[in-house]
Amino acid sequence: MIALGAHAEFIISAYAGVFLGLAALIGWTVLAARQTKRRLEELGDNQRSNGSAQ
Amino acid sequence: MSGFISVLTREIRLSLRGGGEVLTLVLFFVIVGAIVPFAVGPDKVLLARIAPGIVWIAAFLAMLLGLEKLFGPDRADGTLALYRLADLPLSAVVGAKVIAHWLTSALPLILASPVLALLLAMDGETFWRMVLSLLLGTPALAGFGAIGAAITVATRRGGLLAPILIAPLSVPVLIFGVGAISASGGPDQAQAAALLLAALSLMVVVLSPFAAALAVDWGED
Amino acid sequence: MSGFISVLTREIRLSLRGGGEVLTLVLFFVIVGAIVPFAVGPDKVLLARIAPGIVWIAAFLAMLLGLEKLFGPDRADGTLALYRLADLPLSAVVGAKVIAHWLTSALPLILASPVLALLLAMDGETFWRMVLSLLLGTPALAGFGAIGAAITVATRRGGLLAPILIAPLSVPVLIFGVGAISASGGPDQAQAAALLLAALSLMVVVLSPFAAALAVDWGED
Amino acid sequence: MTERHVHSSLCLKTFALGVGRGETVLASDIALCVPAGGGLMLRGPNGVGKSTLLLTLAGLLTPLQGSVALEGHDADFGPAYHYCGHRNAIRPRLTAVETLDFWRGINGNPALSATEALERVGLARQAKLDAAYLSAGQQRRLALARLLVSARPVWLLDEPTSALDADGQQLLAGLIGDHLAQGGIAVIASHDAIALEGLAVFALERRA
Amino acid sequence: MTERHVHSSLCLKTFALGVGRGETVLASDIALCVPAGGGLMLRGPNGVGKSTLLLTLAGLLTPLQGSVALEGHDADFGPAYHYCGHRNAIRPRLTAVETLDFWRGINGNPALSATEALERVGLARQAKLDAAYLSAGQQRRLALARLLVSARPVWLLDEPTSALDADGQQLLAGLIGDHLAQGGIAVIASHDAIALEGLAVFALERRA
Amino acid sequence: MTIDTTPKMTWWNRLSHPGQFVALTRPLILPLALLTGVLFAAGLWYGFFSSPPEKYMGDTVRIMYVHVPTAWLSQFVYATMAVSALGTLVWRHPMADVSMKAAAPLGAAFTAMALFTGSLWGRPTWGTFWEWDGRMTSTLVLLFIYLGIVALWRAFDDQLRAARVVAIFTLVGAVNIPIIKFSVDWWSTLHQPASVFRADGPTMPGEILTPLFVMFFAFTFLFITLQLAAMHTEVRRRRITTLERRAARGEA
Ligand code: HEM
Ligand SMILES: Nc1ncnc2c1ncn2[C@@H]1O[C@H](COP(=O)(O)OP(=O)(O)OP(=O)(O)O)[C@@H](O)[C@H]1O
Ligand SMILES: Nc1ncnc2c1ncn2[C@@H]1O[C@H](COP(=O)(O)OP(=O)(O)OP(=O)(O)O)[C@@H](O)[C@H]1O
Ligand SMILES: [Mg+2]
Ligand SMILES: [Mg+2]
């Protein structure tokens, strides 16, 4: 790792913030996908493609 | 045409018989103007400087207050569904409502604006520019308001949703509105702002009834 | 007691259901605050100076716009008449509603106030005074709001009568609220304003359920 | 239901009652006496004042003259009247079962549980549905279920049959019958017939 | 009424119509054909989808499948449907006559004047009263009067009898009869009987 | 949707069927995710190890590698939503609704990140976290519009109805955003002559451009991946609503 100069804290917090934001975004997407899939299975969906009716 | 007048008279009647609705708006407008001196302290120069902004904020917020009534009660009692079956096109109904909304919620503010000018230590010339600016700009607010109200009416919750949708859209109106009053940029800039404001209002007023009518038509069930 | 909790949970449920009434409220508060600079100009010193007034007006307005929902829908669908026949005294019903109103419309604002503080260039100390001032003052607004909404609903006017009634009553709250934030009068004055605010809130919160219940009881038919 | 819901000594009486809206008297000198277990049908043309009378009995409107009394009712049991009017007091975004639980909470004297009441009125399957999505007749059934979750001696029903299908009308007659059999009182304003024996009739007439 | 309101070649047809709310199909493959002068009663238990079907016919809900057509209607005459639903579309603070005048203004094809229509439904005396102060049955009559102030060939009525007294029911049957006699079409969802000869019946059934 | 039988249109028809859409695009997600990961790794490596400090701003220039891509995406996502809105209103494409709904929270998140990184960049370079500068301010307004759209989606119970109404608002916003941008620029210069130093004057050297572009593609592919995944979830969610309603009404 290189030295980040006088304003290291700003650079680090910018990257950390973006990292956290992206992690939250990805986590939320994955979690929502899991939940809906599980709920669909609970409901005994008969359509293999998981698509909507008709 | 006669149908258009029918809607217009109905709306105006309803809001005049409402007992003090217009008064409320005016009162609110004046209260906002009167609170600010308390916040900034009795510095007349400063007050005069921010006066255009305060007037526009007060007008904007006051017009938000009446939005709920634009379509909400009509939806609740089934009138909105019947509008969709009316001979008069829905966009004309909405257009009449926008005009009535402006007449009952913007015009009274403009008439009450001298009080605010007094409270905020505005000079005579600025006052006239303010009246012009309000006249030119409030139609755009009414139009945006109609779109916001139409979009949220199908959600059956009204309240704060319409204001948050249209407030960001109304930023240009505020900017040019204030620009048309304040002399800080010179008379040329004030005039340019007034022109831009007029153009914006024209565009919004012409287009908003169609957008709002579409939203009502597609949102209703 | 269980009846009181029933009303409380119902009100909170209604405002949390269907996607973020609270989100809307917070957005509204922040947007109103963020829109003011467009009107008064991007001068940070000036903004910091009028920030207390802006915060209080935004809070007042946000709470005002939610008032209609306090009794309006209950009246329209016949629930209010049934409250009068309930085992739970009407004043307790109203009390629960006032608490729920504060929880769902004032508390989120206070939690969101840091954003506004940032946008309006408020310094740390002022920020804390603002939080305190909002905490002390908003209960009074909720109480006055309940009275206004009750009187409105009783007169079937709906809409904007409540604001007109409570606007003058709320002026002291706004003035003391702003006074408790702004440092222009020195720390002593801010403290005195905060105390007055607290006293006002206490009085209003204790009395308003009874007053509002009376209004509802006499007004309904 | 439990013992204490049997109100054998009750009697709903009015004394020279005059009812009306504002200052307009719609009917005066009404002397009713409905004993425990008795049902009364209010009849009369549109606008004659049936709803007004019911509201006055419930105490929601003040009598213009005379008075209403419920003899034999112990005030400790809480309010005695269940009113069920034109409006169903149903709010969107609450499910049917939540709506009933709420009324059960604030009305006191709990009788059936919300689920039982829903079953009774034939809405068991709709229990978890947003109440505003119910059809007109289903909403009316939900409003009737409200009478079942808290026990009260007097039922005041304003056009309870409206929007109910044949099945629903029968259900309604059954509910009222049960209530009367337990010593309750019911006053019903309706233009439809109710399939129940032994209901007294009070006809309001238009004033000259 | 004038000549042009006689619509002899009209026919309201549905083709493999499927109706429902959101994505839930309530009824499908509905093939109706109501000729000019024909009345159709929709019957079925609560929640089966009568109101939904009426709204779909009116074009206020989009069909889930199939389509609705009104054959023989000249679009120049303006919208063809009068819908009269559960909600009366009556606003406080407007008098009865103002309310009707308003509908007459925006609905086109003026037929009776507001005062005549009020007389026809028996509200002549209440013409200048705030419409919200009318009783339930009177409000329903006012809603029916709305159908009379602008002529339209198709009436879609959702439980029009609700809150009407015996007199009102007769009035309703008379209004529908007159409308049909002039070659109009009426589709009526109701749990009550309507005293009119020759109404066809379409029964909706709960889906398995 | 009119049935089009010409063979070359079948992919369109297949895409307009939600179930088919999921089946068709699901295999894309994993490769896209891997690509995104590689791009991020490369971008970070370039950004921290192979690019020098900039001569005026020093190391803070590295904030640019996250700031500019997010700022760009904040606008690109809105464009995606606007096109989807057209798809809903004009072509009635069923997947357009879904795309519109999936994009809104993503756009809001990227906009928030642009604001966040921008203000962290502003502190060392301008000495303040927040300035009412034209570009920053219009990004803030954009964030409000995004959040408004998210709130609007959530306020509807019936997502099919919501789609068309939200589409109208999205398009009204699309027309208005350039006006907002213009007015904000006008406003900020009106009241306060440009006093802020901007970095976009000097042309950037290649060592800075490379990480910028790589990060830029990384973020864009991340958006595409998340958007697809969110669309799949939304399709399933609608199916769930249908099934739940059906269950509530007692049908199997
Ligand atoms: C909260 C604060 C800020 C916001 C909201 C913001 C927003 C934006 C936006 C919307 C863009 C346009 C992206 C595009 O081209 O599509 C952008 C680009 C850029 N910003 Fe920022 N910015 C902020 C602060 C800063 C600061 C403090 C700096 C540097 C000192 C900066 C430097 C740049 C550069 C170099 C670009 C790319 C070059 C260009 O397009 O001109 N930004 N920013
Ligand atoms: N706005 C809505 N959204 C979703 N579902 C609804 C909505 N309104 C009604 N439903 C459902 O659709 C079904 C049919 O309702 P509809 O109002 O058409 O019934 P109906 O036949 O008119 O019944 P009633 O005789 O009680 O009036 C009901 O089961 C109801 O739960
Ligand atoms: N809120 C009100 N204020 C003033 N007058 C009213 C009000 N409500 C009703 N009225 C008047 O009182 C009279 C009686 O109304 P009420 O609702 O009691 O009639 P009703 O017998 O129930 O009729 P219906 O069979 O139509 O329900 C009506 O003539 C009406 O005009
Ligand atoms: Mg009645
Ligand atoms: Mg129905």
How would you portray this structure in words?
The complex is a heterohexamer, with one copy of chain A (54 residues), two copies of chain B (221 residues), two copies of chain D (208 residues) and one copy of chain F (252 residues). With 54 residues, chain A is an all-alpha fold. Chain A contains one helix and no strands. Chain A has one helix spanning 8-42. By secondary structure, chain B is mainly alpha-helical. Chain B has one domain. Helices cover 84% and strands 0% of the residues of chain B. Chain B has helices at 2-17, 21-40, 44-65, 68-76, 79-83, 90-105, 107-119, 124-153, 161-169, 171-181, 186-219. In chain B, α1 runs parallel beside α6 (90-105), α8 crosses α9 and α10 (171-181) packs antiparallel against α11 (186-219). Chain B starts with a helix and ends with a helix. The model of chain B has no long low-confidence stretch (mean pLDDT 89). The termini of chain D are far apart. In chain D, β7 (154-158), α5 and β8 (185-189) form a beta-alpha-beta unit. In chain D, 28% of the residues lie in helices and 25% in strands. In chain D, α2 (96-107) packs parallel to α4 and α3 (114-120) packs across α4 (136-149). The model of chain D has no long low-confidence stretch (mean pLDDT 90). With 208 residues, chain D is α/β, with parallel strands linked by helices. The structure holds protoporphyrin IX containing FE (HEM), adenosine-5'-triphosphate (2 copies) and magnesium ion (MG) (2 copies). One magnesium ion binds next to α1 of chain D.
Class from helix and strand fractions of chain B: mainly alpha
> What structural class do the secondary elements of chain F suggest?
mainly alpha
Share of helical residues of chain B? over 70%
Q: Average the pLDDT over all residues of chain B and give the rounded result.
A: 89
The kinds of small molecule bound in this structure are: protoporphyrin IX containing FE, adenosine-5'-triphosphate, magnesium ion
**Beta strands of chain B, count:** 0
**Termini of chain B, distance in Å?**
28 Å
Low-confidence stretches of chain F: 1-7, 193-198
Oligomer: heterohexamer
Measured by DSSP, the beta-strand proportion of chain B falls in under 5%
SSE string of chain B: HHHHHHHHHHH
What's the helix count of chain F? Answer: 7
Regions with little confidence, pLDDT below 50 for 5+ residues of chain B: none
The name of the CATH topology of chain F is Four Helix Bundle (Hemerythrin (Met), subunit A)
Outline of chain F: globular
SSE sequence of chain F, one letter per element: HHHHHHH
Alpha-carbon distance between the termini of chain F? 29 Å
